[in-house]
Write a structure and sequence with these properties.
This protein is an alpha/beta fold. It has a domain at about 10-145: Rossmann fold (3-Layer(aba) Sandwich). The protein is about 25% helix and about 25% strand. The chain is built from six helices and twelve strands. The strands form four sheets. A six-stranded parallel sheet has the order 5-2-6-7-1-8, sandwiched between helices. A two-stranded antiparallel ribbon has the order 3-4. The chain has a two-stranded antiparallel ribbon with strand order 9-10. A hairpin with a 6-residue loop joins strand 9 (about 145-150) and strand 10 (about 155). Helix 3 (about 75-80) runs parallel beside helix 4 and helix 4 runs parallel beside helix 5 (about 130-140). The chain starts with a helix and ends with a helix. The structure holds adenosine-5'-diphosphate (ADP), magnesium ion and zinc ion. Zinc ion binds near residues 149, 151, 152, 154 and 183.
């Protein structure tokens, strides 16, 4: 069937690009979406309304790469904004959409859409940051990006909150001003002054 050739159901898949802040998640998302555009695929990019750090209707990386995006308030309105003929959907800051995003990603992929999600896999306490861990579980492909540890220059997997303006809330939107990329060894657990000693003490 000719109509099926446009949106083959077997093209549908979920890809997750995760890692700490500054690890290049947004750059990687933009790279994949630009390649899809080069392939003349119909692409839509989304970002949550919560993330108003940069230009309102663009996905912007810390290295100042950018791509046009639609701002949506939640996972449901994201799903409703995907046009029937869209072949590739990119979603930045997936950690801000809540667990509903898992079902939305499944629905789109089942329909034949390639869904690429970029987001933090850990919060500032180093704990799994839903919905990204669940998205990783259902994804066909997972890429873990690493930043450069600001303390030792090693490979950073965690986001250290260096300034707290929200009384310990899980979500505090910010960038270079309030977070640093840290490796496992340089990461200081927010609640524990001496994480290694505390862990040894049980
Ligand atoms: P993410 O979306 O994961 O937060 P971005 O893709 O927006 O990351 O930005 C990655 C870019 O951030 C790098 O290419 C680099 O220019 C810049 N950068 C700033 N601080 C760091 C760091 N500590 N480690 C790696 N890259 C950093
Ligand atoms: Mg980013
Ligand atoms: Zn380090």
């Amino acid at each position: 069937m000719l109509s099926m050739a446009l949106s083959r159901e077997d093209d549908g898949r979920v890809e997750v690009v995760c890692g700490s802040m500054f690890s290049g998640k947004t750059e990687e998302l933009i790279r994949r979406l630009r390649r899809a555009l080069l392939g003349r695929l119909r692409v839509q990019a989304f970002k949550p309304a919560l993330d108003d750090r940069y230009h309102e209707t663009k996905i912007v990386s810390h290295g100042a790469l950018s791509l046009d995006a639609e701002v949506v308030h939640d996972a449901r309105s994201l799903l409703e904004s995907v046009r029937p003929d869209t072949e590739v959907v990119g979603i930045d800051e997936a950690q801000f959409f809540g667990m509903e995003l898992v079902e939305v990603a499944q629905t789109l992929a089942d329909r034949g859409v390639r869904v690429i999600l970029a987001g933090l896999d850990q919060d500032y306490r180093g704990r799994p940051f839903e919905p990204v861990p669940s998205l990783m579980a259902i994804a066909e492909d997972v890429t873990k990006c690493h930043a450069v540890c600001t303390s030792c220059g090693g490979s950073a997997s965690r986001s250290q909150r260096v300034i707290d303006t929200q009384g310990g809330a899980q979500v505090q939107v910010g960038a270079a001003d309030s977070y640093e990329a840290r490796c496992r060894h340089c990461f200081e657990h927010p609640e524990l002054a001496h994480p290694r000693l505390a862990r040894a003490a049980g």
